[in-house]
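// run 5 | inverse folding | seed 20
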């Protein structure tokens, strides 16, 4: 297991932990390595969006339809590539502030277009 350093930017506490062609978006403090998914605090749950699992608020699960899952899956794949990785390269990849903002913006834009209400912190 190795940790990659991406193109740079403002680092965050978030990483994408890839193991066996599957990634997990999580906070570094939750533990990293081998794509592990720790038990989440009450009110959060893991959601599979394709090649990745992301933490979401349990109460907002209904807002995550297949189209949004595909968008986030594609965005996380792009973030891996920007940081020198791929879904088939096991490792721990940083998520920089501008990339985390892209995730939030994607979720917010999607829900404005579909007239659904969702908090900007729906992922975490």
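// decoded
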């Amino acid at each position: 297991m190795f940790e990659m350093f991406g193109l740079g930017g403002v680092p965050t506490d978030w990483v994408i932990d890839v193991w066996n062609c599957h990634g997990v978006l999580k906070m570094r403090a939750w533990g990293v390595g081998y794509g592990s998914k720790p038990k989440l605090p009450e009110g959060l749950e893991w959601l599979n969006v394709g090649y990745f699992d992301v933490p979401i608020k349990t109460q907002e699960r209904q807002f995550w339809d297949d189209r949004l899952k595909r968008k986030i899956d594609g965005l996380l794949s792009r973030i891996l590539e920007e940081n020198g990785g791929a879904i088939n390269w096991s490792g721990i990849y940083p998520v920089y502030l501008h990339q985390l903002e892209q995730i939030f913006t994607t979720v917010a834009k999607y829900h404005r277009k579909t007239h659904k209400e969702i908090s900007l912190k729906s992922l975490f």
